[in-house]
Amino acid sequence: MFATEFINFNISRAAPIRRTVEAIHGPKPPKAGVKSVEDSINEARLQCFLCKLTEKRVLLRPCNHLCFCEPCNDTFQKQIPLLCPICHMHVQSFEIVHF
Ligand SMILES: [Zn+2]
Ligand SMILES: [Zn+2]
C-alpha cells in the first residue's frame, strides 16, 4: 500500500517538470543523423567554391562575396584577371572572415 502511493507521488511530481523543460527548450529536435533540406543548403552555402570541403573564409572586395577557404584563396589570388566567380566583378582586395 505504501509502495503504490510512493510511485504515484513520483509520477505526479515528474510530469510538470518535464512540461517546463519543453517550454524552455522547445519541442525535441529531429532525430540525430537525419538532415533537413535547409541544413544541406546551409552547408553548401558555407563550403568553399574550389575544394568544397572547407568553410569559406575569404571575402572578396569590393563585391563582398564569400567564395573560398584560405588555402584555396591563395591559389585563386594567382589568377589573372582576378574575377569573382559569383558576379565576375574585378577583385581588388581580400578580407578574412572570422565567425
Ligand atoms: Zn577551399
Ligand atoms: Zn562577387
From TrEMBL:
| UniProt KW keywords | Metal-binding, Zinc, Zinc-finger
Q: Coiled-coil ranges per the record?
A: none
The GO terms describing molecular function are:
zinc ion binding
Alphabetical list of SUPFAM superfamilies matching this protein? RING/U-box
Q: Which residues form the RING-type domain?
A: 48-88
Q: Which residues cross the membrane?
A: none
The UniProt entry, under Pfam families, shows: zf-C3HC4_3
Q: Under what name is this protein listed? A: RING-type domain-containing protein
Q: Supply the source organism for this entry.
A: Caenorhabditis elegans
